[in-house]
């Protein structure tokens, strides 16, 4: 079938199980790489190292390479977690529990990364975001798509809503209906036909949508960058600072902005895996009870 449009020398022929495991393993390896660099990002913050410098040095080793070594709030999308968990299931069905647990850790670290991000936001903002407006820039799981399946923005937003934050969300491609549906839908219901997914609430008092980043940030106490859209790199952050409440916080979950430039504007900045802002450095990574 594929030979009709794919060159023969690019078609790999193998057994059914080899083909199935090859597909699962490819995505599992990629997800594992992201979880590995994210695990290092927490240690970089604790020691004062810069995860981008560490990733660059590691990626210079030709045996490792530079791809998929960008630390961030977590990986998302429809494939990585699903395929890792499918691999775990096959291991467990074959009695290989210890190896299954090894692969589970890639998913656990990914989930923990989102929790760490939320905890960092709350602890930095005087141990609570209750009643505070938080601007959310980006909701898609990556730039240049409207796909929100397993986007880390869902868990980050739900974590902030759990502490009664007021969210103003802007994404250049994701529709309001989709965002509200994602925030009202059980974790794995996105894989069901849309007519079987519970309808989103008509309006949530804690969530509003913004037509652009500047509107989202107006009157906000903090701003979270959750998708690496190119436009977020070139925003007029001085304009944003003037419209935000003070002190003004930026939590960069995708390392798309220059922390030092923003600190010169007088923002308090957190970037994943980067040397911590003096304001944040002596605070616990999680809010105290």
TrEMBL record:
Its EC number is 1.1.1.22. The active site is at 79 (nucleophile). Residues 135-259 form the UDP-glucose/GDP-mannose dehydrogenase C-terminal domain. The keyword Lipid metabolism does not apply. NAD(+) binds at residues 82, 149. It catalyses: UDP-alpha-D-glucose + 2 NAD(+) + H2O = UDP-alpha-D-glucuronate + 2 NADH + 3 H(+). Substrate binds at residues 23, 68-72, 76, 142. The keyword NAD applies. Pfam families: UDPG_MGDP_dh (PF00984), UDPG_MGDP_dh_C (PF03720). Keywords: NAD, Oxidoreductase. One of its GO terms (molecular function) is NAD binding. Belongs to the UDP-glucose/GDP-mannose dehydrogenase family. This is UDP-glucose 6-dehydrogenase. It comes from Amborella trichopoda. The lineage of its organism: Eukaryota, Viridiplantae, Streptophyta, Embryophyta, Tracheophyta.
